[in-house]
Amino acid sequence: MVHVGSFDRAARSYEQASYWQQQVFDKLKSFLPKGPVSALLDVGCGVAAQLQVLEELYPEAALWGLDRSSMMLEEAKKKLFKRPISFICDDFLGIPLDVTYDLIVSNAALHWSADILSLYQRFQLGLSDKGSFVFSLFLPETFEELQKLCQALGKEVRIPSASFLTAEQHIGYLKQVFSDVYVQRLELRSVFNSLKDLMLRIRYTGLQGEGGRPFWTPGFYKALEALYMERYGGIWAKASVLYGVASG
Fold first, then answer.
1. DSSP 31
2. Prediction pTM value
3. DSSP H helices in the chain
4. Do residues 96 and 64 touch, judged by C-beta distance below 8 A?
């Protein structure tokens, strides 16, 4: 599990650098319910960029945002909202259950959970009778090309995303908890101007994890960029994402 300090350090630059999270959310919007929502919780809300969108989509909803990074929430509170937002600084399992939610949303966050089954169970407890849990999360194939190229150059670098649960594991846990589960797996591929650009995107969005940055000499860095160009004709990375809707 990533240490919260990774996200604290990324808080001020997160919205500008959270390239994958924004791309993933653009697709996640198509999974959101179309009907009215009276209470909405965003789990792993970060600096609340997506809460601003959700506020527009559900103008009658009372809104909660939960994140375990206090610095992320400090940045979130600087944003201008049209109505009050209740921000909660806690672990994912700390979602308040004194409220019944019509919609629980989590975008590109739950892959860091250390106990995903307990988390899904808590979400189910928090939903109203007609409520739904809509999510996206990263899968272990995310950035696998970077890991493979490092290995090709003799470096046993383990990208933290490689330790994420598989799609099959998530589906199994979801079906233990919810009566209705729909999932879709997608790959988002992005091209970058340089290897440095790619690594900064990984670093400042928290996808790298705590202590996950390998020590690269300038020579190794140069060799890796050259191998990228040789193998792929450019610098690109793949995010493997599981989207889903669960209820009941």
1. G
2. 0.86
3. 4-17, 19-28, 49-57, 70-76, 116-126, 144-152, 167-177, 195-204, 218-232
4. yes
